Amino acid sequence: MSSDLYSNRPLLDKLGVKPGMKVALAGVDDDWFQRELRTRTQDIGHGRPSAPCDLVFLRVSTPADLAKIKSMKSWIEPSGAIWVVRKKGAGAAVRDTDVIEAGLAAGLVDNKIASFSDTEGAMRLVFRLRDRPAAAKR
User: For residues 21 and 37, what is the distance between their CA atoms, to the nearest angstrom?
Assistant: First the structure.
């Protein structure tokens, strides 16, 4: 797939948001993004969900914010993901390597990046296949 084809895909496709998914937002309160999400799912919560969900979107602005990933791991289904949204660019306070290290410390691995907006990028953290409960591997 060429990068042009990928870059022209809708944001929700890049982020893997499928119809009916359960989504939790933590610090991602952008009206435009919530409107876009509602075109795919109405199951959108703010903060800790009452039951594990498919996707969590966590906005971080400092390296200290990354400590939240460890507890948020319990927010997702075994096949779910946490998207860490952060400022992009050379002057950003949180670097890709910071997100990767925080994910590993929480028992998650990064497996995808996407441009979230003109000013922010997102990195997806997931459970390693070998770390998922047996029922989720089927």
Answer: 10
Whole-structure pTM value? 0.90
Predicted confidence (pLDDT) per residue in 68-97, tens digit = 999 999 999 999 999 999 999 888 999 999
Instruction: Please provide the CATH number assigned to the domain covering 3-128.
Output: 3.40.50.150
**Which backbone phi and psi does 26 adopt, to 5 degrees?**
-130, 95
In contact, 95 and 89? CB cutoff 8 Å: no
Please state the domain extents for the chain: 3-128
Q: Which residues contact 40 (CB under 8 A, 6 or more apart)?
A: 12, 17, 18, 19, 20, 21
What residues have CB less than 8 Å from 12, skipping those under 6 apart?
36, 37, 39, 40
List, for residues 3-35, the tens digit of each pLDDT value.
445 567 899 999 999 999 999 999 999 999 999
Amino acid found at 41: T
